[in-house]
Every structure is written in C-alpha cells, then in structure tokens.
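Dear colleague,

Following up on yesterday's call, I've attached the two folding results inline so they're easy to grep. Please treat them as preliminary; we haven't cross-checked anything against experimental data yet. The first protein's sequence and structure tokens come first.
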Amino acid sequence: MSDLSALAPIAPRPTLQIGPLALDVPVVLAPMAGITNTAFRRLCREYGAGLYVSEMITSRALVERNVTTMRLIRHHESETPRSVQLYGVDPATVAEAVRILVSEGHADHVDLNFGCPVPKVTKKGGGAALPWKLGLFRDIVEGAVAAAGDVPLTVKMRTGIDDDHLTYLEAGRIAEGAGVSAVALHARTAAQFYSGQADWSAISRLKERVTSVPVLGNGDIWSADDAVRMMSETGCDGVVVGRGCLGRPWLFGELATAFGANAPAVDPDLAFVARAFRRHAELLVEFFEDEGRGCRDIRKHVAWYFKGYPVGGETRARLATASTLAEFDELLAELPRDAPYPGTAAEGQRGRAGTPKRPALPDRWLESRDLDGAESREIAAAELHHSGG
C-alpha cells in the first residue's frame, strides 16, 4: 500500500474541468471490456471520486439497439456523471450513436476510443490504427462533437501504431480543433500492446501541443504515488487509471486522498479485501439480475483481489468455481482474515501485459495518410466489441 502520508498533495487541490463537468479530483477510470460495468463502477465510487467510464460500446451495435449493448449503457441511479465510451470507424454511424446517447439521456459525457491495439480491430483499420488516416479521424471526431451538442465529448488514443508511425501529436491537434473537451493519451504504441513501460514524455509533448483543453495521461499508474508523479513530471491535467485498480477498487480512495480530497482511510488487511470482493460479487449479481452469472463473472477477479495475500491455491481454485453468494460467504469465512496488508507483494503491475508484437494492419495501410475506396470498405468490418486503449 502506498504511504499516502508521505505524499505532498498538489496544492491547491486540483480539479478537472471537462466541458461543463467539474470533477473534485483529476482521476478517470479507464474503460475495460468485461470489467467496468455498472457493478465495478459503483464499487469504485464507494471508495473514491472521479469520472467512471463505461465499458467500450460499439457504435454500430448501439445504432442497431443490440440488447446486450443497450444493457451496457444503463447506469445505476447513483452514478453521476454518467460516462460512456464509444468505438467506431464510420463517421455517420459514430455520429448517430452519439445522438442516441445524448437525445435519449443515456450519458453526461461521451468518449471516443482510438487506442484499441487488438489485432482483430487494427487489421481492419480500427482502434489505434485509425488516426493514421487523418481525414477519417477528423471526420469521425468532428461529426461526433457536432452530434454531442452541449454534452462534452473526449477522445482517448495511443501514441501511434509503432515507433516509426506515431500519430498522437497530429491527432491531438485535430481533436482540439474539432472541439473536444479533453484528450487522453495512453503512452504506448499499438505495437507495445500493454508491455514494457509507458513513455510519459509523450504525455508532456502532447500537453505542450494541445493547450486549450485538458490533456490526461494514462499508462503505468499502479498507485497514488504514480498518479501524483505523472502529473508532476508531465504537466498533464489528470490521470486515467486502468489495470492498476483491478482487484483494488479502493485505489480511487487513495487517489482522492493524494490529491487533497476527503476519502475514508483504508487499511487493506485480508478482512477488508474479503469484504470488497464480496461486495463486488453482490453488485454483479444485481447487475446481471442472475446470481449464477454474477458469481461466474467475479471469478476472473479472484487473482487480482488476493494478490500477495496468504490465500492458498486450493482456496483460490474454490473461489474461482463458486456459483452462489452463499458459497463465497463460506469460503471467505475460512480465510485468515487478520492477515495484514502484505506490502510490495500486493503492489505493482496487475493484469496481463502481453508482449510487443507487429501490429496487424490492412494491406498497404501505411503507404498513405489518406483513405482510399478499398480501405473504406475494409474498415467497415472493424466494428467489433474489443477492449483496449
């Protein structure tokens, strides 16, 4: 656990202004597919403050009113402001998806994802590959901003396809000129996936280039210390937290404290972690309206919650196969709940980092910054539901 008492909060306490939205702390929860559903967002809010963004929503599925997609854009009444991230490759479809969110009152903030590194997306020209085609990027962002009206619209992107094909500075300026309310940068290329270290110096360079709207930094924020250090080193206006909060939703409380806001003090001994895990399972059951499905969904979180704690392999395996809340209660009651926070064993990287890989791209994608007719037809197949950024 970070020694927050040793941190010197940035003074005065920073707030993050995204269009008309004023956040008490400059912290945003990154969209993560299969993770940042209503249940997880509500849990994070119970510990801290900030802007909590939905799972990535495919624009075409929203326009077609796919049942699962319409469920994913629903927010609990306690969630405010409501934030939804969209992914799309067709300007008209993205604009229509934004209009649905705004006109039907589904969101107070819309974010566009241009950071997905998943090969199934980039090989069709979507995600982190898309800003290479500057005209297409401009058309999507301008159309989305116009459709959003008074609702703030932001973009999240990566530094580029690889080190030889960086796009973030040009894309940042285009987005700023199109009227976005903020630009977020995951300081990795698509080729890096989630491996290696994020290049925070890229965030500094983007901040120097984009001056009229907030610039948010993302990448390798595993603790509140990291968040404070990123803002200090790069001059960015806020941070976007992804994998660092997996199995550790109380990180948002630590972040609030680090930035000078009020948040309950946390001593994450094993009893505390067990209660957080149980609460997460309970919220998932409520979200899915199905105890079995909710209990199955929490299974992927077991390793993250109990990282570094004295929870044996057999117990972890049983937690990862339990199918009712009553079973979880029995298993959690067997844990050595007086076990203290294990320190560095519970800290550091969480989630899969993967390995660097050559990005999958459409044929001859890098030969021109303009989109030709064949490419236009090909990227239409890129609207799949994948996470990333």
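Below is the second protein, in the same order (sequence, then structure):
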Amino acid sequence: MKRLFFRLVAVGLGAMLCLGGAVRGQRNEFERSPIDYLTAPVNDAVARLNDRLAQGDVTLATDPQLGYLPAVLDALDIPASSQTLVFSKTSLQLQRISPRTPRALYFNDEVYVGFCQNGDLLELAATDPKQGAIFYTLDQSAAGTLRFVRDDGSCLSCHATSRTLDVPGYVVRSVFPDASGRPRSGSRSFTTNHTSDFQDRWGGWYVTGTHGSMRHLGNTISTGMDQSFDRERGANRTDLRGLFPTDPYLTPHSDLVALMVLEHQAQMHNAITAAGFETRQAVHQSEQMNEILERPPGYLSESAQRRIAKSADLVLRTLLMCDEFALTSPVEGSTEFAAEFSGRGVRDSQGRSLRDFDLQTRLFRYPCSYLIHSDAFRSLPSEVLSPIIDRLRAILDGTEESPEYAHLTPELRRDISAILIETLPEFRLFPLAQN
C-alpha cells in the first residue's frame, strides 16, 4: 500500500507540473517522455533539407553579399516577398541589428529564416508536425559539405515561455526601441497576433504598405522615457528609403500584409503545438495511472479529458480568428506577397480558398486559418483532433451557438464549411469524438 501511495504521488506531481501548460517547470516536462523534445527524431523541412545535402542531392550556392540566404530560400520554397524587417535588438545576433541594419525575416507555412547583415549565421526555425518549433543555424562562412546545426535547447529561453504558450514556438514582439534598437528599460512590450490592437503593433519593425487612418508603432523609435512615438512619421509608408540603406536586402520592403500573416501564423503554430504536447502528456500520465489502478488500457481520466478539451478550445479559438482586431481602414501591402500567398492556396470547386484576403475589415475573407491544411494540424493526436473536428462541424452548422463565434455570420459558416468539405478530408471523414 505504501509503495502504491508513492507511485500515485509521483504521477500526480507530474500531472500538476504540466496542467494547462502554465506552471513553471513546463520546459522540463517536454524534455522528458513522452515528448522528448531534444532527442526524438524530427521530420521538419530543414531536417529533410539536411538529409538531401548529406546525400548530395542538392547543393547551396553562396552569394558575395547575402551568403547562403538566396539558395536557402530557394531550397525551402520561401518567397522573397515575405521579407519583414525588424530593427529591435531582440534576437540571437543582436549586436548585428540596429535601425540602420535591421534583421530580415522570411517565411512560408512551415519555416522561418532570419538574416543579419554581415552575420555569422543564418537562423532558422522549422515546424515539425509533432515536436513544434525546431531551431537551427547555418554557418555563413562554411564551405564544402554544409549542414544546418540544430539548437541544443538554448533558444528555448526565449522560445518556450508564456509568450509561446509554454511550448517550443514563435514570438512576434512589439517593443519601444531606443535609437540603437534596444527596448527601453522599464517599457512595456507586446506579443502581437491577430487579436492585437493595431496601435500596439510593430514597435521595432519597419512596415511598408497603406493602412488609412489607423496608426502603428513601426518605422520609428521611442524618443523619451515617456515612450512617445511619432506615429505620423511611420504611417502609410510604401518606401523605406531615407530610413536606412535598403540595397543589402532582397527587397526594399517590409510588407504590412506579410507582417499580419506572420502574427497570426506564429500564434496558430503555437496553439497546435500546445494542444499536441498537452494531449500526449495527458494520455501518457493517464496510462501510468491505468497501470497503477489496474484500469483498462486506453482509459482517459476526467482530468485528462478536461486538459485535452481545454487545449482543443484554444486551437478552435485561434483557428476561427476569435477576438480578431476589426480593421477600421483598408490595408494594402507594398509587394506581391498577398497575391503570391493567396496563389499557394488549395481551392474548392468555386475557386475559394482559406488563403483569400479581405483586408477591408479583417485579415482573411474566410476567418478559418489556412494552417488547418498543415501537416502539424493533421498530425495532432486523435484524442484532440477528433473533438476539434467534431466541434468545428458543430460551430459551422450552428449546433454550437457559443458567443465566442458570433463573428461568424451564417453566410461565412456556410462558405467555410463548403471549402473544408472539398479541401480537408478529415472534415468529412474523421470519426466523431466519443463521449
């Protein structure tokens, strides 16, 4: 009996440590079984490119000014139009970053690539379908057989915090930068996503595009301890010339629409990863309890079901763009990013795609994240994917009438449902969640 008591206490403590993913010590949880973040094999796009490099199936050419950047973007199918420029000193090579030499960030649905002028490294983060964000570097001075080096966990000090839902993930921060790009001591900062007020976004970033009467924090610095900004100076810029030398970059832009997509995508990736981790941990701990209490394999305790339901709710709220900031003026980017992004979408028989933009009152025409088509979403454990799909059907057909989803008009629900029926097999075929 005493032995059973101590085993129960040990398992109970493990459950407490990861309950809701909010208790400090979460990082130690996902470095252990069943997640094994640092040791489990990964199959993200950078890992696959590494295999192709090792086998000699692909080579990367170097550019005299940009190093391996153009070749890496080409190999990973990342468009140059996705370029966004951040000048706050908030990343690994901060000594290379300033308002005169911003860091360039490029991305597609799976991979993010960071480039600094005269930087020693290219920084990459790739989304593994099961393990979340995996961080890599590529030595810009390397020659011969190249290899992307996976981070040993150091990146997690910033990329596995409450800002990322306590899982390995992505952060888009808005800060009050001084003239050197450093966030002002004692000033606020914002983790921004599609719910953020426009006026709080992009402090420490360059922004190109038009946004009417709305104002943001981009394109300028904080001029005093009162954290004041000349918002007018940074507004509605379509050209960055005069702010810093743009020639060393692939484009002279930091596209407004790309920034908005980046904010949503980072939060959506984090929500998917958090749901996957929470479910795997809940199932693992439930199985431990089943063995101790001699319950049948596969039995899910009520506490495990609650944890899974909570993580499913977060995915659905992010997926369906709940609490999205309502644009009060139309927005338009300064590059072909919007057209290229939409062009990558899977479309239904009426030509509709979840990647179609609105940009008048909200980001997307159909407020259901395009990342529902991602490998990461479709690889979620069945214990959480099934209730997500089940509830998504109920929300879209009106069976679930939660006020959280009141922004979805009957017409939008019909359109989103029709798109998913034709483009997402899981939406049609995945079995209903078992009660």
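For the second protein, one point worth flagging: The longest strand covers residues 121-128.

Best wishes,
A.L.
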